[in-house]
Amino acid sequence: MLRSLKFVAIALATLLVVEPAIAQYQPTIRPQILRKLAPRVIEPNLNLLPEARIAPSQAAAIAQAEFPGSKILKVRPRRGAYDVILVINGNVIRVRVDWNSGSIL
After folding, report:
1. In angstroms, rounded to a whole number, what is the distance separating the alpha carbons of residues 81 and 96?
2. Which one, out of 36, 48, 54, 58, has a CA that is 20 to 30 A from the CA of 74?
């Protein structure tokens, strides 16, 4: 029992003496290694993305104005235009609305 208490006392004394030195230690090599191992951040080129000038809700309103009394099922962006799917009197139709000008294609 006395032996284990001696060991604990020595360990605590060592910790009290060494802890401030460990806290002040600032490695000089380690950050460089970590920077080399970290993956590079690739920033996207936002100029290459297609620019939607009108909102999908605006495209739906334009298509619904062209076909009064219709109900909107879905609006999907496709290749520079919105595909607006409408239902009129039980018939399903697809209307393409240009997302730059808002005109019906």
Report:
1. 6
2. 48
Closest CA to 85 of 75, 100, 77: 75
Q: Is the four-CA dihedral 72, 77, 79, 81 of positive or negative sign?
A: positive
Written as one string, the DSSP assignment of 5-50 is HHHHHHHHHHHHHHHHHHHH---SSHHHHHHHHSPPPPPP-GGGS-
Helix (H, G, I), strand (E, B) or coil at 101: coil
Domain chopping of the chain, boundaries: 2-37, 51-98
8-50 pLDDT, tens digit each:
888 777 766 766 666 666 666 555 555 666 667 777 676 666 6
Q: Compute the distance between CA of residue 55 and CA of residue 76 in angstroms, rounded to an integer.
A: 11
Residue 76 contacts by C-beta under 8 Å, 6 or more apart in sequence?
Answer: 82, 83, 85
Q: Match 């999908």 to its residue by tokens.
A: 56
